[in-house]
Amino acid sequence: SFSSDEVIRKRLLIDGDGAGDDRRINLLVKSFIKWCNSGSQEEGYSQYQRMLSTLSQCEFSMGKTLLVYDMNLREMENYEKIYKDIENSIAAAHEKISECKKQILQAKRIRKNRQEYDALAKVIQQHPDRHETLK
């Protein structure tokens, strides 16, 4: 007492990606049995041609599946390469950020020193220079 959804689900599970391979193989087995039981030579030849046709369909489907499989492998390698490139870019960005932080700290130190020098220079300029003092 299977419902139609369960039957369809089961067929898809058996069939894989839905390319009809299980149906083709069943047809091939049936054609082979008919060919074995064929009475006349004409009937046997037509059955033989049907088997060849079904076989070529199966081979084509298998070749297509292999090509898709190879393409998926290459795509995975490509994604791994992209992933590594992104990781390297992130690491380089982190290095650049830490370098920039060091430069900012150094620039702040220089600015602080300059401000102190300017403050000292203003204090010094308020007093007369050595030549004036000696007079």
UniProtKB/TrEMBL annotation:
Cellular component terms (Gene Ontology): THO complex part of transcription export complex
Source taxon at top rank: Eukaryota
Localization, UniProt: Nucleus
UniProt keyword Nucleus present: yes
Keyword Plastid listed: no
Biological processes per GO annotation: mRNA export from nucleus; mRNA processing
InterPro entries to which the protein is assigned, alphabetical: THOC7/Mft1
Coiled coil: 76-103
Keywords for this protein: Coiled coil, Nucleus
Main subcellular location: nucleus
Assigned protein family: Belongs to the THOC7 family.
Function: Component of the THO subcomplex of the TREX complex which is thought to couple mRNA transcription, processing and nuclear export, and which specifically associates with spliced mRNA and not with unspliced pre-mRNA. Required for efficient export of polyadenylated RNA. Plays a key structural role in the oligomerization of the THO-DDX39B complex.
Protein's recorded name: THOC7 protein
The organism's taxonomic lineage, starting at the top: Eukaryota, Metazoa, Chordata, Craniata, Vertebrata
Gene: Thoc7
